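Tutorial, part two.
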Amino acid sequence: MNHVEARPGQQPITVVLVDDHTMMREGTRRLLEEDPDIKVIGEAQDGAEALSLCRQLRPQVIVLDIAMKHINGFGVAQAMLHDDGKIGGTPAILVLTAYDQVAYIQAMLRLGVKGYWLKSARGSEIRQAVHEVARGKRSFAPEIRRLLLDEESNTPPIPTHRSRARCPPPGCPGHAQ
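Running the prediction step on this input gives:
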């Protein structure tokens, strides 16, 4: 089994699954619970239910989809990671989604999520990712890492001297004519 062994006497990692598709939640639960060091303690089908459930159960990790009714994954991440202590400790969030758009990934990272994986991942990869984010580490699918690196390499360098470069460049709001 591809996971980090728990130390004797250590409690399993508690997880809440948040996805609007029942089959996805059921399958993810089965895959995660193949690891005796992971315990799924709740499931939510939308963002509003997720917020209530996570405030009640206080999981260590939230496995979160993006597209859902009522409150989407961005709203859940914002509320859970910037909740001013209402849930008694900030959970680590692992996004598990079909969306691989760089703007979505960057927005979730700005909110403070620890991991971003696609639903095409293997169960063993998601189990490993849960262990990583529970330990406070970041965890990204290989294709997500590639997208982020490609985006970073396509970003023009930030000028170091305002006298050599126009900031902001001509044509952008705020540019003095």
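The two ends are 63 Å apart (CA to CA). In part three we will examine how such features are distributed along the chain.
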